[in-house]
TrEMBL record, chain A:
Entry protein name: Glutathione transport system permease protein GsiC
Naturally occurring in which organism (per UniProt): Paramaledivibacter caminithermalis (strain DSM 15212 / CIP 107654 / DViRD3) (Clostridium caminithermale)
Residue ranges constituting the ABC transmembrane type-1 domain according to the UniProt record: 95-292
Keyword Cell membrane part of the UniProt annotation: yes
Transmembrane segments: 12-30, 99-123, 130-152, 172-191, 231-256, 276-299
TrEMBL record, chain B:
CDD domains on file: TM_PBP2
Start and end residues of each ABC transmembrane type-1 domain: 91-280
Keyword Transmembrane helix on entry: yes
Membrane topology per record: Multi-pass membrane protein
PROSITE patterns cross-referenced by the UniProt entry: ABC_TM1 (PS50928)
Annotated keywords: Cell membrane, Membrane, Transmembrane, Transmembrane helix, Transport
Listed GO MF terms: dipeptide transmembrane transporter activity
Organism: Paramaledivibacter caminithermalis (strain DSM 15212 / CIP 107654 / DViRD3) (Clostridium caminithermale)
Entry's family note: Belongs to the binding-protein-dependent transport system permease family.
Record field: transmembrane: 33-52, 93-118, 130-151, 220-237, 257-280
Protein name stated in the entry: Glutathione transport system permease protein GsiD
A GO CC annotation given for this chain: plasma membrane
Described function: Part of the ABC transporter complex GsiABCD involved in glutathione import. Probably responsible for the translocation of the substrate across the membrane.
Length: 306, 292
C-alpha cells in the first residue's frame, strides 16, 4: 500500500511542475509586451521599463520561474495588477463562498445520485427506471448556466422563495448548489445503477438471498457497499466538473467566489490573479484525483498490484 | 416426463450478415438514437436553408420584449428582433463552431493516439504525459485558460475547444490501437512486409473508427455546451451574432420581464446536446459494446 501511494505521488509531481510552468508562462504567452499591457496604454516608456523591472521581466525565465514558485510556496503571491492589493488578500475572502457551494453540491448530489441509482437498479425495466434514465440523460445534457437561470426565474423571480443573487444567507446557496449538483447527480445515478445491476447478478448476492437475508440487507449491506467502490471514482472525477461549473454558477447567481474572480480577472487583464486562481484550481484538482486514486486502491486491492 | 425437443439448426443461424446491414438492424432498434439522428438532420436542414420568418437584424421598436404571440412565436428581444428567427439562423453558427472544433480535436487527438498506441515506448510516454497535463486543467477551465491567453472571439473559442478535446481522443484511440495491433491480421500484414505507415493508415486506423465515431458524437454535445458557456461568460460570440449562448447571455438581463428570451435558446441547446448524447449512446451500443 505504501508503495502504491508513493508511486502515485511520484507520478503527479512532474505533472504539477509542468502545469505550474505553463501557468507561469501565462504572462509571457499573452500577445504583446506584458509590461506594456500591465502599465496601461497611457504609460510612458520609462514607466513601462520600471514596470518591467518590478515584475522581474528582465530576468531569465528560469530565475523568474524560481521566484514565481518560491512566492507561491511562501505565500507571497504578488500584487493584483488592478487594485494593487496583495493577491492573497483578494483571493482568501473569495474562497469561502466557492467552498460552501462545492460542499453543498457534492453532498446533495452524492446522496441523491446514489439513492436514485439504487432505486433505478432494483426496479430495472420498470417505469421508474425508465424515468430515472431519461432524467439522467437530460441532466447530463443540460447547460448548467441555463438550468441556473431557469431555476432563478421560477423560484426567485416568480415565486420569490429564494434571493436572486448574492450570498446574504445560507438560503442563497440552495439554487446555486442544486444547479451545480444536477449534472453530477445524473452521472452518479447512471454509474450507481449500472454498477448495481452488474453486482446484483453476482453469486454472493444469490447466496445472501438464499440464506434468507432480508432484501434490505442484501441491497444495502452487500450490493451497495461493493458498488460504492466504482462510485468513488466517479465522484472524484466529477470534482473537475464542479470546479469548472462553479465558474458558471457563480456568474449566474452573482456569487463572489473564486470562479467569478477568475472570469473578472481575465476580463480586467489582472494576470497575477488569473495565474494564482488557475494554479489553485489545477493543483486542487490534481490532489483530489490523487486522493481518489489512493481511496480506490484502499477499496480495491487488485488496483494496487498492477 | 417432459419431452425433449431438439431444435434443428437452420441455415439462417450461421449466415454472416453484411456488417452494414447488421449495424442498421441493431441501430434501428435503439429508438432514442434514431429519433436523435432525425433531430440532428432537422438541425442540419435548418442550418443550411435557414428558413427564418424574419431577418435576424430586423428591429421592431413597437414590439420590444413582447411575449410569444401569433406574429412572433417565441417572442421578441430587447430590440424587437424575432427570437425564433435568431434561433433558426443561429443553428448554423452554433453547429459549425462545434463541428469545426471537434473535427480539429479529433484529427490531432487521433494522430497522437494512434502513434502512441502503435509505437509505444518513450513516444507513448511523452504523448500520454502531455494528455495528463491537459487533463489536469479541470473541465472547461482549460478552454477558459486558453481563451484568456489568446483573447475572446469565436475563432479563439474554436481553438480553445479543439485543444480541450485533444486528450480525450488521444486516450480513446490509443487504447483502441493497442487492442487492434495485437490482432492476427496485423501480424500477418507485418510479416509480409507492409510498411508502418501503410499499416497505420490502411489497417489500424479503420479499426479505430467505431471508437472514433462514438467519441466524436459524444464530444459534439460537450463542444456545444462549452461554446455556449464561453459565450455566456462573455468570451465567445458577440451579442450581435445570433449565437444560442450569446442570446442567453443577453437574456439574463431581462430575466424578470422577458423569460422567453432565456427559455427558447436554452431549450434549443438542451435538445441539441441531448440528441448528440443519445445518438452517441446508441452508436456505442451498436458499434462497440466494450466502449464506456
Amino acid at each position: 500500500m505504501k508503495q502504491y501511494v508513493l508511486k502515485r505521488l511520484l507520478n503527479i509531481i512532474p505533472i504539477m511542475i509542468v502545469v505550474s510552468i505553463i501557468i507561469f508562462m501565462f504572462i509571457h504567452l499573452i500577445p504583446g509586451d506584458p509590461a506594456r499591457i500591465i502599465a496601461g496604454q497611457k504609460a510612458t516608456l520609462e514607466e513601462i521599463e520600471i514596470m518591467r523591472e518590478q515584475l522581474g521581466l528582465n530576468d531569465p525565465y528560469i530565475v523568474q520561474y524560481k521566484n514565481f514558485m518560491l512566492g507561491i510556496l511562501t505565500g507571497d503571491w504578488g500584487n493584483s495588477l488592478k487594485t494593487g492589493l496583495p493577491v492573497w488578500e483578494v483571493i482568501i475572502p473569495r474562497m469561502k463562498p466557492t467552498l460552501i457551494l462545492a460542499i453543498f453540491s457534492i453532498v446533495w448530489s452524492v446522496i441523491a445520485g446514489i439513492s436514485i441509482g439504487v432505486i433505478s437498479a432494483i426496479n430495472r425495466g420498470k417505469l421508474i427506471d425508465y424515468i430515472v434514465m431519461v432524467g439522467a440523460s437530460s441532466g447530463i445534457s443540460l447547460p448548467l448556466f441555463w438550468l441556473g437561470l431557469m431555476l432563478m426565474q421560477i423560484f426567485s423571480v416568480k415565486l420569490g422563495w429564494f434571493p436572486t443573487t448574492g450570498i446574504d444567507s445560507l438560503s442563497s446557496y440552495v439554487l446555486p448548489s442544486i444547479t451545480l449538483g444536477a449534472g453530477i447527480t445524473a452521472m452518479i445515478a447512471r454509474y450507481t445503477r449500472s454498477s448495481m445491476i452488474e453486482i446484483l447478478k453476482e453469486n454472493y448476492i444469490r447466496t445472501s438471498r438464499a440464506k434468507g437475508l432480508s432484501e434490505f440487507i442484501v441491497i444495502n449491506k452487500h450490493a451497495l457497499r461493493n458498488s460504492l467502490v466504482d462510485v468513488i471514482t466517479i465522484v472524484g472525477l466529477q470534482f473537475g466538473f464542479l470546479l469548472a461549473g462553479s465558474v458558471l454558477v457563480e456568474t449566474v447567481f452573482a456569487i463572489p467566489g473564486l470562479g467569478r474572480l477568475l472570469i473578472d480577472s481575465i476580463l480586467f487583464r489582472d494576470y497575477t490573479v488569473v495565474q494564482t486562481v488557475l494554479l489553485i484550481f489545477t493543483f486542487q484538482f490534481i490532489i483530489i484525483n490523487l486522493i481518489v486514486d489512493v481511496l480506490y486502491g484502499v477499496a480495491n486491492p487488485k488496483i494496487r498490484y498492477q | 416426463m417432459e419431452e425433449v425437443k431438439m431444435q434443428e439448426a437452420k441455415y439462417e443461424d450461421f449466415k454472416i450478415e453484411n456488417p452494414m446491414k447488421e449495424f442498421a438492424r441493431k441501430f434501428l432498434k435503439k429508438k432514442s438514437a434514431v429519433v436523435s439522428l432525425g433531430f440532428i438532420f432537422f438541425l442540419v436542414i435548418l442550418a443550411i436553408f435557414q428558413p427564418a420568418p424574419y431577418d435576424i437584424d430586423e428591429t421592431d421598436y413597437d414590439n420590444i420584449l413582447s411575449e410569444p404571440n401569433s406574429e412572433h412565436l417565441f417572442g421578441t428581444d430587447e430590440y424587437g428582433r424575432d427570437v425564433l428567427s435568431r434561433i433558426i439562423t443561429g443553428t448554423r453558427l452554433s453547429l459549425s463552431v462545434a463541428v469545426t472544433a471537434v473535427t480539429i480535436g479529433a484529427f490531432l487527438g487521433s494522430i497522437l493516439g494512434i502513434i502512441a498506441g502503435y509505437y509505444g515506448g518513450l513516444l507513448e510516454s511523452l504523448i500520454m504525459r502531455f494528455c495528463d497535463i491537459l487533463f489536469s486543467f479541470p473541465g472547461l477551465l482549460l478552454a477558459i485558460g486558453i481563451v484568456a491567453i489568446i483573447g475572446p472571439g469565436l475563432t479563439n473559442v474554436v481553438i480553445a475547444i479543439s485543444i480541450y478535446g485533444i486528450p480525450t481522443f488521444t486516450r480513446v484511440i490509443r487504447s483502441s490501437t493497442l487492442s487492434i495491433k495485437e490482432l492476427l491480421y496485423i501480424e500477418a500484414s507485418r510479416s509480409i512486409g507492409v510498411s508502418d505507415t501503410r499499416l497505420l493508415v490502411k489497417h489500424i486506423f479503420p479499426g479505430t473508427l467505431p471508437a472514433l465515431i462514438v467519441t466524436y458524437t459524444m464530444r459534439m454535445g460537450t463542444a456545444i455546451i462549452s461554446a455556449a458557456s464561453l459565450s455566456f461568460l462573455g468570451f465567445g460570440a458577440s451579442p450581435t451574432n445570433p449565437d444560442w449562448g450569446a442570446m442567453l447571455s443577453t437574456g439574463r438581463d431581462y430575466i424578470g420581464v422577458a423569460p422567453h428570451m432565456l427559455l427558447y435558446p436554452g431549450l434549443m441547446i438542451f435538445f441539441t446536446v441531448l440528441a448528440f448524447n443519445l445518438l452517441g449512446d446508441g452508436l456505442r451500443d451498436t458499434l462497440d459494446p466494450k466502449l464506456d
